[in-house]
Amino acid sequence: MTLPVPYLAARTLTVVKPIDTSGAKRIVNLGLNESWLGTAPGAIEAIRASAADVHRYSDPGCKVMRAAIGKQFRLDPARIVCGNGSEELLDAVGRVYARAGDEILFPAYSFLQFNIVAYRIGAKAVEVPLGANFAVDIDMLLAAVTPATRVVFLANPNNPTGVAVPMDEVARLARELPSHIVLVLDAAYAEYVDPAESEATFEIADRHPNVVVTRTFSKAYGLAAARAGWAYAHPEVATALNNVRGIGNVNGMAQAAATVAIAAQGFVKEIRERTAEGRDYLHGRLRALGFELSPSVANFAFARLPGAPAGWAQDTVARLAKQGFIFRSNEDYGLPDWLRITVADQADLDEMLQLLAIEVEAVTGEKLAAGG
Ligand SMILES: Cc1ncc(COP(=O)(O)O)c(C=O)c1O
């Protein structure tokens, strides 16, 4: 028997990591940067109500959802493209604007999917070195542009480092990047920073027709499983993205949920404030345990235990998973010593930190104050 030969070599997507939670009495997932404060009010009811129409096709143009997003941010709905999560739209940009052999540029330790987008089309992923503390160096990015560069991705704030690029630097990148190159500003974590910054991101896209902004309902709006995201782009770019996305990409229930959720900006504000408090708390406790921290402004901490032996982070993740606390090691990002831990309820964090302190103690030999 011969099997069809794929153009892409078989590769396991490392974003889907097996996790052994056997033995855990309950699971607290701090590994996917999901919402720890539920879903935007009204969204679940909207899903329930729209389920009555599940025998019908949903609107492939996402008209109502786009109108709601446009109204919320004072954006032209004709410039909005909805996606099956923002990941579909990142992929769409790659497929529309780059081909095999082209270069797709992004800062080192960027969101893993940028690499996957390049891989899927046979483009070359060019990772640009960072400055200290995972800071993105816009000059280095600009210097890495070649005649083969077609797309530049910038996640702001970034996952897994949580680092944000100052808006004036983002604006400078848009200004100085040659206009035939698409600049994708992936703002999946925008809700966790000052709303003025997301407004500024849209203004950058208004000034530069080669800029695409992507947003998601998966994080602050608490709709990760619904798979809803959107892009804001020049109308012609929007048309190009519409040409390659799935026709029925955003199902009716997701459209209904997103349409309600986008108006829930009071909820988003509360998420932002409580997440900032939770992040400060988590940062403080990790620091007390001896961790070095990336300056994350998102809904997660990114931390490394200096002096820990090789493999400690992976072993710690495996041991804590068996006790019900999932978080993420980052060997697939080329950062095997770093842990990414999502902000959560203080009681859950405290329980996790007690277990983590035992792991730290095994390395440092010190009895550390884990009690909180
Ligand atoms: C930086 C970044 N961009 C985009 C996404 C994709 O999110 P979604 O496809 O759920 O919208 C994620 C998900 O974790 C992310 O971290």
Please, could you describe this protein's structure?
With about 375 residues, this protein is an alpha/beta fold. The chain folds into two domains: about 45-265, 3-Layer(aba) Sandwich (Aspartate Aminotransferase, domain 2), CATH 3.40.640; about 265-365, Aspartate Aminotransferase, domain 1 (Alpha-Beta Complex), CATH 3.90.1150.10. Helices cover about 40% and strands about 15% of the residues. It has twelve helices and 13 strands. Strands 2-8-7-6-5-3-4 form a seven-stranded mixed β-sheet, with helices on both faces. A hairpin with a 6-residue loop joins strand 9 and strand 10. Helix 3 (about 85-95) packs across helix 8. It is globular. The protein binds pyridoxal-5'-phosphate.
Question: Which key terms come to mind for this protein?
Answer:
372 residues, alpha/beta, Aspartate Aminotransferase, domain 2, Aspartate Aminotransferase, domain 1, 2 domains, seven-stranded mixed sheet, four-stranded antiparallel sheet, globular, binds pyridoxal-5'-phosphate
Topology:
Blueprint: E1 28-29, H1 43-51, H2 63-73, E2 80-83, H3 86-97, E3 103-107, H4 112-121, E4 124-128, H5 138-143, E5 149-155, H6 167-176, E6 182-186, H7 195-207, E7 211-216, E8 229-232, H8 235-244, H9 252-261, H10 265-288, E9 292-293, E10 300-304, H11 312-322, E11 325-326, E12 328-330, E13 335-342, H12 346-364
Parallel strand pairs: 1-11, 3-4, 3-5, 5-6, 6-7
Antiparallel strand pairs: 2-8, 7-8, 9-10, 10-13, 12-13
Helix pairs in contact: 1-9, 2-9, 3-4, 3-8, 6-7
The structure holds pyridoxal-5'-phosphate.
